[in-house]
Specification:
Elements lengths: L8 H10 L6 E3 H8 L3 H4 L5 E3 L9 E5 H48 L1 E8 L2 E8 L6 H17 L2 E2 L6 E2 L8 E6 L4 H7 L13 E2 L2 E7 H5 L7 E4 L4 E14 L4 E12 L1
Antiparallel strand pairs: 1-3, 2-3, 4-5, 6-7, 8-13, 9-10, 10-12, 11-12, 12-13
């Protein structure tokens, strides 16, 4: 490979095989990801259900490490597994490097936007750094408000202000997602509280997308009470979940925001 630090194929395979004890259990999601298998592959294997029940969804299936190894080798062959492990390692290394570069860019942004202050304490002198987050422009404030209104309309309520006619408890969606086109890199950076990073150097790109997570109240720029509505005649409370996931695709200028909704009725 030209790099002594790069693990050999033998090392990758040994780590893959010996990383767990033969009888250790692995969740179905990890089984697909780490052993390069599909749902149909797993359907042939014994599993142990964990969790689940009335009102909390189905149980998670766990599979034995040695069975997953055998199934993966039988499906892909030894050479095929080696190729997949090498490709996976390259992806992870690329992701790690991207994260390091983004972190360095974030540190530069923080240094440019910070001020140092000195405080005296009973244990001596301590230097603290206060980060100044630029205030939203009026355009960004309006955009946050517009996005919040889109979410409220998407959450299973027929409204003219999120206050009129909720669907009955149980029909309202548990998850929501909105999309909006025509978002520039500069606008995305400002929505992510980094308006000076118009080239998105402090963000980690995975494939075609940038993905960020924020506390809902912070992202929408409102108090927590603005994320909850109680409908007195119907005795229904609808609430936007505590966090939102923001995805941005610069090639198409598409922004999507998703999260969960909490609905309670009496």
């Amino acid at each position: 490979m030209g790099d002594d630090s790069y693990p050999s194929a033998r090392d990758l395979v040994d780590d893959w095989i010996d990383g767990l004890d033969p009888y250790d259990m692995v969740s179905s999601a990890a089984a697909k990801r780490e052993y390069f298998l599909t749902a149909s592959d797993l359907a042939t294997l014994l599993y142990e259900p964990v969790g689940g029940g009335v009102g909390i969804g189905s149980a998670t299936k766990y599979y034995m490490h040695r069975h997953l190894l055998q199934t993966s080798l039988r499906k892909h062959g030894a050479d095929g597994v080696v190729k997949k492990l090498e490709a996976k390692h390259k992806r992870e290394e690329k992701k790690r490097m991207n994260e390091e570069q983004a972190e360095q860019a974030r540190q530069r942004l923080m240094a440019a936007a910070s001020t140092s202050t000195t405080e005296m304490t009973h244990i001596g002198r301590v230097t603290t750094t206060t980060i100044r987050i630029p205030r939203d422009s009026q355009e960004i404030k309006n955009l946050r408000g517009g996005l919040l209104n889109m979410v409220k309309e998407n959450m299973g309520f027929k409204t003219t202000g999120w206050i009129i006619l909720p669907y009955y408890c149980g029909r309202a969606p548990k998850n929501w997602r909105i999309e909006t086109p025509g978002i520039s890199k500069a606008t995305f950076a400002a929505l992510m509280f980094r308006p000076t990073d118009v080239d998105l150097e402090s963000f980690v790109q995975n494939g075609a997308y940038y993905t960020e997570k924020y506390r809902a109240s912070n992202f929408f720029g409102v108090d927590e009470t603005r994320l909850t509505k109680y409908f007195e005649p119907e005795y229904v409370t609808q609430k936007i979940g505590s966090s939102v996931t923001v995805r941005y695709k610069p090639s198409t200028m598409e922004l999507s925001i998703s999260g969960n909704a909490e609905t309670c009725g009496w």
